[in-house]
Design goal:
It is a single chain. By secondary structure, this protein is of the alpha/beta class. Helix content is about 30%, strand content about 30%. It folds into 2 domains: about 180 residues, Quinone Oxidoreductase, Chain A, domain 1 (Alpha-Beta Complex), CATH 3.90.180; about 130 residues, 3-Layer(aba) Sandwich (Rossmann fold), CATH 3.40.50.720. Helix 6 links the parallel strand 10 and strand 11. Helix 4 packs across helix 5. The radius of gyration is 20 Å and the shape is globular. It starts with a helix and ends with a strand.
Length: about 325
């Protein structure tokens, strides 16, 4: 009883010290980077199952650009604060929250949060959207971890169920999700052929432990796949579509699997004898997924590559960096 009372007291004190307003980047209508403006908005409210987080860094994802230009996949609530993942420190907790306390360092992923996204000094979302910061990951890097980490984990463990000795081709391995998927696949004991973008991407993915790395735009993917797995690879994990992906699939054995997160376009073409598995980052109990991801990250040295960081006021420049492509890792916004 004393611990519960103390938790409630700390939460109340944390909530009381929270300002009434915050800086946030929001849009009032879809459009180009000019529609994003830095403004003052109310700090979001905290319901019984919510956690209020003082945001340290926020991930800038390719889908943020699509949402900004089209409002695709989300409900058009304006002003709309972008950002589905980030990291920070718990500033207040709702009355029904027991997993967190004020002062905890956390990272999170919350898709189309009705109370606003992570491009802000504060974010409020249900407690299942957050996890405690894993050992060995900085606060800035954790801002790039939530969405990409869960997507990589779901692909490696659920869609493909990779095991020791499996051979997998990871296409788009130098991107935000691919860099994490390479490390998770190696942790599971798989052999990895990775396609990356440019010399910088190839060097990064090689450092992260892939067995073979090629430039997906310049190299002969089919030849590399034959040399990597002469009888055909067991699986392809795709984070980019198009003709290069089809060449990766050419390297599969009969009965092999292709997995890709929903949103990758164009999607792989159906083929006889090949199982195509689209998937989402989230499935089942999100708290269980967070525990699985943290366990994997803490199992051995793990890197969350940050390609570039921008201030909150420079969100437009961050979007332009992502739009330029060939991002080795993920772009983040430094909120604090």
């Amino acid at each position: 009883m004393k611990s519960l009372a103390l938790t409630a007291l700390i939460a109340a004190l944390g909530a009381g010290s929270t300002p009434a307003t915050m800086r946030a980047v929001a849009i009032d209508a879809p459009g180009g980077v000019e529609v994003m403006t830095l403004r003052t908005l109310p700090v979001p409210t905290v319901d019984a199952k919510d956690v209020l987080v003082e945001v340290h860094s926020a991930g800038v994802a390719v889908w943020d650009l699509q949402i900004r230009t089209t409002m695709q996949w989300v409900k058009p609530r304006f002003p709309y604060v972008l950002g589905s993942d980030g990291s920070g420190v718990v500033a207040a907790v709702g009355s029904a929250v027991t997993r967190f306390k004020v002062g905890d360092k956390v990272y999170g992923y919350c898709w189309d949060n009705p109370k606003g996204g992570f491009y802000a000094e504060y974010v409020s979302a249900p407690d299942h959207c957050f996890a405690k910061l894993p050992r060995g990951v900085s606060m800035e890097a954790a801002g790039a971890l939530g969405a990409s980490g869960l997507t990589a984990l779901s692909g490696v463990d659920r869609a493909l169920a990779l095991e020791k000795g499996d051979t997998v081709i990871i296409h788009g391995a130098s991107g935000a999700v691919g860099t994490l998927a390479v490390q998770l696949a190696k942790l599971r004991g798989a052999r990895v052929l990775a396609t990356a973008s440019g010399d910088e991407g190839v060097a990064l993915v090689s450092r992260l432990g892939a067995d073979v790395v090629i430039d997906g735009r310049k190299s002969d993917i089919a030849a590399a796949a034959r040399q990597f797995a002469p009888t055909g690879a067991d699986a392809v994990l795709a984070f980019a579509g198009g003709a290069p992906l089809e060449k990766c699939i050419d390297g599969l054995r009969k009965g092999g699997k292709v997995a890709y997160p929903n949103g990758v376009e164009p999607v792989p073409k159906p083929r006889d004898g090949i199982n195509v598995v689209p998937y989402d980052a989230l499935f089942g109990d999100q708290a269980v997924q967070w525990a699985q991801l943290n366990a994997a990250i803490e199992a051995k040295p793990f890197e969350v590559p940050v390609a570039a960081s921008f201030s909150l006021a420079d969100a437009a420049a961050a979007h332009q960096r992502v739009a330029a492509g060939r991002v080795p890792g993920k772009v983040v916004l430094r909120i604090r």
